[in-house]
Amino acid sequence: MDSTLAKSIEYVKGVGPARAEKLSKLGIDTLADLLFYFPRDYEDRSKVISIKDAAPGETVTIKGEVYSLEKSRIRKGLELLKVTFIDHSDAVIGSWFNQTYLAKNFSKGEEFYLHGQISEKSWRQFKKKEINNPVYEAADSENLVHTNRVVPIYTLTKNLNQKQLRSIVFRAVNNYANKLNDWLPAYLKRKYKLPHIGDAVREYHFPSGRDSFIKARQRLAFSELFLFQIRLMMEKNQYQIKKGYSHPPSTELMADFLSELDFKLTSAQKKAWHDIAGDLEKNIPMQRLLQGDVGSGKTVVAALALLAVVSNSKLSLYMAPTEILAEQQYFTLKELFKNLPVNIGLITGSSSTGDKEKILERIESDNLNIVVGTHALFQDDINYKNLGLIVIDEQHRFGVRQRQRLMEKGENPDLLVMTATPIPRSLAMTLYGDLDVSVIGEMPPGRSPVITYWRKRDKRRQIYDFVNQKIEAGDQAFVVTSLIEPSDEMPNLISVDELYQQLNEKFLPDKNLGMVHGQMTAADKQEIMEEFKQGNIDLIVATTVIEVGIDVPNATVMVIEDADRFGLAQLHQLRGRVGRGDKQSFCILIADPKTEDGIQRIEAMVASSDGFVIAEKDLEIRGPGEFFGTRQHGIDEFRVASLIQDQKVLQIARKEALRLTSKANWEKKYPDIVNKVSQLEVII
Ligand code: ADP
Ligand code: MG
Fold first, then answer.
1. Are 413 and 309 in the same domain?
2. Which residue, by CA, sits nearest to atom 23 of ligand 1?
3. Per-residue pLDDT reduced to its tens digit, 64-86
């Protein structure tokens, strides 16, 4: 990069110390920062109309010459400047309060572009067209910045207005954009007909035409995605040159385990296990994502990996996102390994110090093979010897860096990340671009898809009669609501307590109900879940704490109250709690959605039971930031690229990044790229 671009913004014409301070609040410290401070939106002011056609209330751009000026003092402290402009058709007044000093800018006969809203009030009162505080620009100016063009709209800060910032950026892109070093290899620019970085930056701030704008945008999006993919590949390559453990699975132990199961692995499970076994055997640390819809049977595949590591006398950690799931997986694994020489421990945030100490002692004395837990597993004060494998279950909330931190708990242990969230390809490539992927794309046999109904709230009687029938026939049910406490702000929504009472008293008085919510202790929740599993409880009323992982095949009905309050991915997870056995299952969505989005979401759920279809739809409706319920690292942070709009660009960027990084010595050949990657701001 030309060294001018690294200079403080203060030295740019039109920016002094005071403005520099304001710009700094926007993250703009250098000239380069300014060039890459892109608009959040645009306004089309390129259509100039005659004054006659400018209707009151309308926001317009017009061209007129100064006809007269009038300064007046309305009262003390309130001065008014009125400038009348005319064109061949009509007249319009531009008025400014307490800015009479502007008068010097307007001399009679001079032409200006004006932009603003024709005041309805003036029209009503005086039958005159008037614009309060219009944007104005001399028509003979060589470079029009604010009018007669598509203008950029920037995110602002206090005491810095659109016009000021736009002018600063305009000057900067015209004087300095061509000094930007174009690090993108020429062969790629040729191949995809991408403009020079300087041209792209200028065009993206101040579009000159539709086609050139689209090209500029493509260039910038491609650059971002390309660099990001290269970074992921560099991360991945770093692992591949690290030496890890080799865990060749013991054939005998595996065979024992499989013969004890009361089912056969599906071919998708076999394939996934085959991939994993291959990774375990290599002495390069495994970095694999196991993706499979809810109920597809990931646990047993993970269990095989755990067993392989046990058979090599190494320790494994199994991390679940919540305490209730950690406990449940702990029991599931205990059950799966009950006839095998495997010792399992549990650590969660609410484990007592004593319990934790006992587990730590057992780890210390090599007495445990597997420790299951929540994040608590990775507290600083816990050290693991012989850590061979980390399994992260149901965890899409982890960026690359966070995963690496976990890996540092051992000496390059193998890593298996499992997710049931069907992640659209574009997101998977970004979030998990550094991982190898295995997909379990098939359900265990004998499952028929859950039948989903959408009902309005006035049908609750019928809905719960149906639930009643199912329970009488020996099935079990879940009822989920989004609220824990009754809320004044949302009086129409049902809290979990109220719902529990209603069901107990009104809808299902002679059934055995249990309640589970996030504010209960883990032990209490676990107890209720256990009773439910045993069949002593017919129906569980719950908040979304049951969202993931709960496995009760006899549960066949999932009722979701106020279903429009949930995201699609979440609804799909909830629905996945039923349909886990061979009986026909049902999901009933109770909702009166008020918005178009809300209706679309519910309809998407009724229309499809395919997690991928739903996820794509969700991404489309809500955008990537909302997709997971929280902002995600690495996916919301591109300045230009959008993972929804730019899926094609992403695919190309990934392909080219892969091609480039697999060339020998590419880093020596493209030092600019390496440098750029190291400056990448996107968090991974
Ligand atoms: P998830 O992928 O959502 O974690 P689980 O591993 O909890 O799914 O499996 C869901 C249910 O399916 C469990 O009851 C499990 O025992 C059962 N299951 C897993 N694999 C098979 C299979 N190949 N055949 C029949 N049932 C299976
Ligand atoms: Mg699971």
1. yes
2. 265
3. 999 999 999 988 889 999 999 99
